[in-house]
Amino acid sequence: MAIWRKALFPLKILFGSAVFARKSLYKSGVLSRYKAPVPTLVVGNISTGGTGKTPMVDYLLSKFSDDFNLGMLSRGYGRTSKGYVAVTSEATADRVGDEPLLLAQKHPTVKVSVCEKRPKGIQQMLQDFPNIEAFILDDALQHLPLQPSFKIVLTTFQNPWFLDALLPVGNLREPATSAQQADVVVVTKCPATLDEETKNTYKTKLGVAPHQKLFFTTLEYDTHVRGAAEVPLAEFVQNPFVLLTGIANPSTLVDFLNAKKAGFTHKSFPDHHNFSKTEIIALANLNQPILTTEKDAVRLAPFELKNLYTLGVRTRFLADEKQFLEAVRAALAVKRF
Fold this sequence. Notes:
Layout: H1 3-6, H2 9-27, E1 40-45, H3 53-64, E2 70-74, E3 85-87, H4 93-96, H5 98-106, E4 111-114, H6 118-128, E5 134-138, E6 150-156, E7 184-188, H7 196-206, E8 213-221, E9 224-226, E10 230-232, H8 233-236, E11 241-245, H9 251-259, E12 264-268, H10 277-284, E13 290-293, H11 294-300, E14 308-311, E15 313-317, H12 321-332
Parallel strand pairs: 1-5, 1-6, 2-4, 2-5, 6-7, 7-8, 11-12, 11-13, 13-14
Antiparallel strand pairs: 3-4, 8-15, 9-10
């Protein structure tokens, strides 16, 4: 945590009071909450981002879209459109958001839409697609007008919420104790191996409640990069390249490539960055291959950069994956209310 942010402590108190007051209005019933007639699973975090929500939603869709008619609803962060928009694989990232478009392209049987107001989005999706049996929502833990039926909260191994503080001193959107309202806690971006002592330490420091299940995951990158041709990653990193990222926290990818002794120049942009014409021209004129993430690639697709390669990533459980899938399957299988 930057030292200068500690000077913002009075604002932290104001922010915390505002969060408490808002939640109290919903808890007391002064403000109503919408409960959908089908199961609604929310994947979110209590920090400001970069915890691996998209890989987790991608994982859930890959595991359950064959067995359930799923709908996926997102706010569509960074999009130029407003209100409810159905997402197709032919949409553009600037209109619907990069993450919803990526998920729609990877999971064509899943109905994907974006809407700032989640209850309105769910109602419209059920009207348009009445066969939807359950919803998976990305980043809606703080969207209190919706009352989800199952909550999965994520925190990274490197920056767990017990080392953080409320905004603006830290990066927490709400107090760490709020995470106890979730059904499942997942520690993401863990080292590939993790001993039981460390797991128990995290369980204690995270304040995992008796009713909650705790899991640990890591990010696993593809063995090939995709561009004009598919190239083994081991072969690709033998030559210099440019790493291009516009994601919240690229450190995991940077560390992964450094461990492979890759020689690259990192061009880092803010999360969901919309590339300007000047930036695209500069990228097109580079005399080295460009490696980027799947999320960045959907924003870059309209520009047809010929030297662009994409490296995919997925969530992998370090242990107890079966128990996690059983818990999610039980939540998805609840009949219409």
